[in-house]
Write a structure and sequence with these properties.
By secondary structure, the chain is an alpha/beta fold. It has 22 helices and 23 strands.
């Protein structure tokens, strides 16, 4: 498509690529209302109802006509005040079938769902691409460039622009789709994916995707990037709309997440889609009778959707027939990570086909893992420690279809001598292990490879930044030095880790006897005053160049509170006692036994989540937050420009 190409040339090229994938190609006006080959009675009719009814009959041959009619009625009368809710209902019908009740020939009542799509055999479906498909609603008439129909349902829409036109860009196509959603929403009830392109660039998104969430698709087969000589639109069409892949994307890689106020439709990126495919294949091999139980490690950099990738993987493994209704154990090494990941999985129950469960303690964990099959169990790794150090953890299940999914699988606790890996093996001797991490495994880390195996998939920060999945990170050293004897420095981290191995966060807080000396040095009034002054001046200077917010990561909760006081002393207007007001907040957990001056900063989970929503909103005046944990995830937030650490992090998590 080099040289003098127009929007029509781009459209023709797209149709050719679809034709090569086995789609029937039809020019929209030839099937328009009133034409000899018409497939609609009016422009308000957005489905190709004849193709839909034919597919329902073909895919459900044993179902009586009355049940087909009922399923057809439900599909064609989806309605909701919110477009995304109606779309969610349609997606449920696609993936699970349409539930109807009917009378079988033998007089019994049938409840089997009526299938809308055959996900197992793509050839059993009707595949059609229509260009210049006119739709009308509420006095508006619109004509999307290309519409992809499966069994008469418009599951994908493509909007194209001419890159040579001065004012027409890929984002003009994005904005046009937003207008279409507002003016002809009935058409988008049935939409699964949206594609925008100017012939040079191409992006894929969903019904609720904001501009920054329209992402490229850089592969055709597997994880290997497509040659640079191929235009992005060709790669995206061939990579996504190959019929087998498109059905897998719809069935296994779309979720609807609610934050309490809004519902967001999310779809896997190419790195997630192919990583899950490789991980599933590796799991099947590792869990077979002669498998070594080491699935491998998925290294996807922070901010690239690692938690969602884990949920997509879990959903695929749960449904795979070879796994025979497996039990999944999702493992973290901190309570806050356990809560975060559990929240992600809980919002993805449709993928999992069941509700995940958190283990409260060791006894509850043992109870949950003694089931005969099924279940998604969340636990911290510390719950696999025996009651007495040196003892053997009791056998919980000898089953071979148990999969342990470890978050941040590179940590030092995974060893076979007297560490957690040994105790997990004692408890679940035939389980298979897969690790997910946002940071690379060190070459010297033999323990991780011994437990999990080598890399299954790699998506590093360079590719994530190129794809727009994360924003670039620029490091600037701004040191407020400590006074500490040199001979003491090498011992602090090792001694604290040894002293607190096996303890969860609350326990570690009580065991900081040796570590507290360093914390006191870091948190002196003089040093915090210097840090606060530097932060204010740096932040003010940044705001002169660009809008943004800031995150400060502190060594302890005490330092968070003291630094907050130092910042407010410099900028009194930043403070407000109300969570919905103010420009700066401390984000930390605590209890009633904490000091009185900490209590205003201690919030429960709903209040912390409310602050997180304020911080993510670029229009909200909350412009700075202080956290007592290592928070490199802030680099994934475009609104967060400076992210400052007031302690030293050994790697990121």
């Amino acid at each position: 498509m080099s040289g003098n190409f127009t929007e029509s040339v781009v459209e023709e090229a797209a149709l050719e690529w679809f034709g090569a994938l086995g789609y029937q190609i039809v020019f929209g006006p030839t099937i328009a209302p009133g034409e000899p080959a018409a497939e609609r009675t009016s422009y308000e009719q957005v489905l190709l109802e004849g193709r839909l009814r034919e597919a329902l009959c073909r895919l459900n041959a044993a179902v009586p006509a009355e049940a087909i009619d009922e399923a057809f009625r439900k599909l064609t009368r989806i309605s909701s005040p919110q477009l995304v809710d109606a779309n969610h209902e349609l997606h449920h019908y696609l993936v699970n079938g349409v539930s109807v009740e009917y009378l079988r020939g033998d007089g019994s009542i049938g409840y089997d769902p009526v299938r809308v799509i055959d996900f197992d055999d793509p050839g059993q479906n009707d595949w059609l691409v229509v260009n210049q498909f006119t739709v009308a609603e509420g006095g508006h008439t619109r004509r999307p460039d290309v519409v992809v129909f499966v069994n008469g349902l418009p599951l994908a829409v493509i909007e194209l622009k001419n890159a040579a036109a001065e004012n027409a860009t890929i984002w003009s196509a994005f904005q046009q789709l937003q207008t279409y959603k507002h003016e002809v929403p009935a058409f988008f009830v049935f939409n699964e994916v949206m594609l925008i392109s100017d012939g040079l660039e191409a992006r894929l998104g969903t019904l609720s995707s904001l501009r920054e969430r329209f992402a490229p698709w850089r592969t055709i087969e597997g994880e290997e990037l497509a040659p640079a000589s191929l235009v992005q639109l060709e790669v995206l069409i061939r990579g996504v709309f190959e019929r087998r892949r498109f059905l897998d994307l719809i069935r296994h890689f779309i979720v609807y997440e609610s934050d309490g106020d809004t519902v967001i439709k999310k779809m896997a990126g190419y790195h997630q889609f192919h990583a899950v495919g490789r991980a599933v294949d590796a799991t099947l091999a590792a869990s077979r009778p002669k498998g070594d139980r080491r699935v491998g490690v998925v290294w996807h950099t922070q901010g690239s959707g690692k938690s969602l990738t884990m949920a997509f993987y879990a959903g695929r493994i749960i449904l795979h027939p070879e796994m025979e209704n497996p039990t999944l154990v999702v493992l973290t090494d901190r309570n806050d990570l356990d809560e975060q990941l559990f929240g992600t999985f809980s919002r993805c129950q449709e993928l999992l086909r069941q509700e995940p469960t958190q283990a409260r303690d060791r006894a509850h964990l043992r109870e949950l893992l003694k089931v005969a099959a099924g279940g998604v169990v969340f636990t911290t790794i510390q719950k696999f420690l025996p009651e007495t150090r040196g003892d053997t953890f009791p056998l919980l299940s000898p089953r071979e279809n148990i999969v342990v999914i470890a978050d941040e699988a590179h940590r030092s606790q995974y060893d076979f001598i007297d560490g957690f890996a040994r105790h997990m093996r004692d408890a679940l001797p035939n389980a298979s292990f897969i690790g997910f991490t946002g940071t690379p495994i060190e070459l010297t880390d033999k323990n991780t490879r011994a437990v999990f195996g080598d890399y299954v998939s790699i998506y590093d920060i360079q590719r994530a930044v190129q794809d727009g999945a994360t924003v670039p990170i620029y490091y600037e050293s701004r040191l407020a030095k400590l006074e500490l004897k040199e001979d003491e420095k090498p011992h602090l981290d090792a001694e604290f880790d040894e002293a607190t191995e096996g303890e969860e966060i609350e326990g570690k807080e009580k065991l900081k006897t040796k570590w507290s000396a360093l914390e006191a040095l870091v948190g002196t009034d003089r040093r915090l005053a210097l840090v606060a002054d530097d932060l204010v001046r740096h932040f003010d200077a940044r705001l002169e160049a660009l809008d943004g917010k800031a995150m400060v990561v502190c060594m302890s909760r005490r330092i968070c509170v003291e630094l907050y006081k130092a910042l407010v002393a410099l900028r009194p207007a930043w403070h407000h006692a109300d969570d919905t007001q103010g420009a700066i907040k401390v984000v930390m957990t605590g209890s009633a036994s904490d000091p009185a001056e900490w209590q205003p900063h201690i919030r429960n989970k709903p209040r912390r989540e409310a602050l997180a929503k304020r911080f993510k909103d670029p229009e909200d005046p909350l412009s700075s937050s202080s956290s007592a944990t290592c928070g490199s995830r802030a680099s994934t937030r475009p609104a967060c420009t400076p992210c400052t650490w007031t302690n030293r992090c050994r790697g990121t998590d």
